[in-house]
Specification:
The protein is an alpha+beta fold and 139 residues long. The chain has a single domain, classed as Nuclear Transport Factor 2, Chain: A (Roll). The protein is built from four helices and six strands. Strands 2-1-6-5-4-3 form a six-stranded mixed β-sheet. Strand 3 and strand 4 form a beta hairpin.
Length: 139
């Protein structure tokens, strides 16, 4: 189901939806239609890959879905925002959204990280343009 207007009309709504749509128990199909409706078609999701040759992996929303579907089939995964820093200017917002990742929504986090999210407001709704994240294991 596409995102609801409450998902799209405020920064709080779209950021809440960004985390909700990827969260769930092992084997639960995610609502990829809702996920797609949060992002501009040309948007990018970019995890930072650490190691001896650090790099940025650049993914379209469709590539992200293909990458994580097998993971979500085998692993429970929840992500929730813990704190946020927001800068807005005109129709643009930049959000540093600090989060924690969990295997059980009532359990302890197994990882924390920060999403750098760029958004665009078109007078009707917010769109996610890009998300870049770095977790401690990829630092």
């Amino acid at each position: 189901m596409p995102a609801s207007s409450s998902d799209l009309t405020t920064l709080d709504g779209i950021l809440r939806a960004m985390y909700e749509v990827i969260s769930g128990p092992k084997g639960q199909a995610r609502d990829w239609q809702r996920f797609r409706s949060l992002y501009l078609p040309a948007s990018r999701l970019m995890p930072v890959i650490g190691g001896t040759e650090p790099r940025v992996r650049v993914l379209t929303p469709e590539e992200y879905i293909r990458r994580v579907e097998p993971i979500f089939a085998d692993e429970a995964f929840w992500e929730r925002e813990t704190t946020r820093q927001v800068e807005t200017f005109g129709r643009v917002a930049h959000v540093l959204s600090h989060y924690e990742s969990l295997r059980d929504p009532a359990g302890p986090p197994f990882e924390t990280g920060t999403n750098s999210v760029q958004l665009f407001y078109d007078d009707a709704r917010w769109w996610i343009v890009s998300v870049m994240w770095n977790t401690p294991r990829n630092a």
